[in-house]
């Protein structure tokens, strides 16, 4: 197995994966979560129908959108981030209360200064995901 729990053992170059405190993969412990009432809502506005290139990078499957325009934005406070790509990890990269989900999706956004904002979401087994089903029929 070569999932996130094994990253540190794959190469001496990845040894920090076992020692660090602020990098992936992380375990979100819900009993330790602290609500920050000062945070503003995450506002997202994406186009419904877009063109993208479905690509297998060997370590992830991704859809890459227009590198200049992207396909929409999220606003965090006063800063706008444009969606440039999305990709998936199977099994999920992160865990919640030690539970690793079968699949995790990442929406990768960049602002005008090149700073990244990533929105992650987990999949459970069940109904087929309408977006993935549509994307595979391209």
UniProtKB/TrEMBL annotation:
Signal peptide: none
UniProt organism field: Stephania yunnanensis
InterPro entries: Alpha_CA_prokaryot-like (IPR041891), CA_dom (IPR001148), CA_dom_sf (IPR036398), Carbonic_anhydrase_a-class (IPR023561)
Gene Ontology terms, MF aspect: carbonate dehydratase activity; zinc ion binding
Protein name: Alpha-carbonic anhydrase domain-containing protein
GO terms under biological process: one-carbon metabolic process
Domain Alpha-carbonic anhydrase: 1-138
A Pfam family of this chain: Carb_anhydrase
């Amino acid at each position: 197995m070569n999932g996130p729990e094994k990253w540190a053992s794959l190469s001496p170059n990845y040894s920090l994966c076992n020692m660090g405190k602020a990098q992936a993969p992380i375990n979100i412990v819900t009993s330790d979560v602290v609500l920050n009432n000062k945070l503003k809502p995450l506002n997202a506005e994406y186009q419904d129908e877009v063109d993208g290139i479905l690509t297998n990078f060997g370590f992830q499957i991704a859809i890459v959108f227009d590198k200049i325009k992207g396909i929409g934005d999220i606003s965090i406070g006063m800063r706008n981030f444009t969606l440039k790509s999305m990709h998936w990890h199977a099994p999920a990269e992160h865990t919640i209360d030690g539970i690793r989900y079968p699949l995790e999706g990442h929406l990768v956004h960049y602002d005008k200064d090149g700073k990244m904002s990533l929105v992650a979401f987990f999949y459970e087994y069940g109904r087929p995901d309408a977006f993935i089903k549509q994307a595979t029929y391209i």
